[in-house]
Amino acid sequence: MITKVLIVDDSAMSRKIIRKALPHEWEVTISEAADGSEALVAYQAGKADVMFLDLTMPNLDGFAVLEALKKQEAKVCVFVVSADIQPKAHERVISLGAMAFIKKPVDAEILKNELKKAGLI
């Protein structure tokens, strides 16, 4: 089964790094969004089984996206990918339904391990 992956980050370079860090053996189709508003539109369009979500973005930040997805009881596995290392940020994203918090810059092995823990690969 092919997994639909949505990479959400206002930095094109960060989106590219996440894309390259995905396990090569994982069968995916990848979509991208540059902010939280685009992410919610892409989710509604059926483009996300798994979402890699930055926290700090213009228009709608990652926290607001998580809140919106939680309200909708969305069926998507969200992995927050952020440079924000504050424990409060970690706690908040997990309480909002994120599967894990992955620190930037993304390490491919850590990413793969988190996907394994979530039963996605």
Description:
With about 120 residues, the chain is α/β, with parallel strands linked by helices. It is about 40% helix and about 20% strand. The chain has a single domain, classed as Response regulator (Rossmann fold), CATH 3.40.50.2300. It contains five helices and five strands. It has a five-stranded parallel beta sheet, with helices on both faces. Helix 3 links the parallel strand 3 and strand 4 (about 75-80). The radius of gyration is 13 Å and the shape is globular. The model has no long low-confidence stretch (mean pLDDT about 95).
Q: Averaging pLDDT over every residue, what do you get?
A: 95
If you consult CATH, what is the topology? Rossmann fold
Helix amount: 25-40%
Number of domains: 1
Question: How many distinct helices?
Answer: 5
- CATH C-level label: Alpha Beta
Quick tags:
single chain; 121 residues; alpha/beta; Rossmann fold; five-stranded parallel β-sheet; 5 helices; 21% strand
Chain-wise SSE layout:
Elements: E1 3-8, H1 12-21, E2 28-33, H2 36-44, E3 50-53, H3 62-71, E4 77-82, H4 87-95, E5 100-103, H5 108-117
Parallel strand pairs: 1-2, 1-3, 3-4, 4-5
Helix pairs in contact: 2-3
Can you give me a brief rundown of this structure?
By secondary structure, the chain is an alpha/beta fold. Helices cover 40% and strands 21% of the residues.
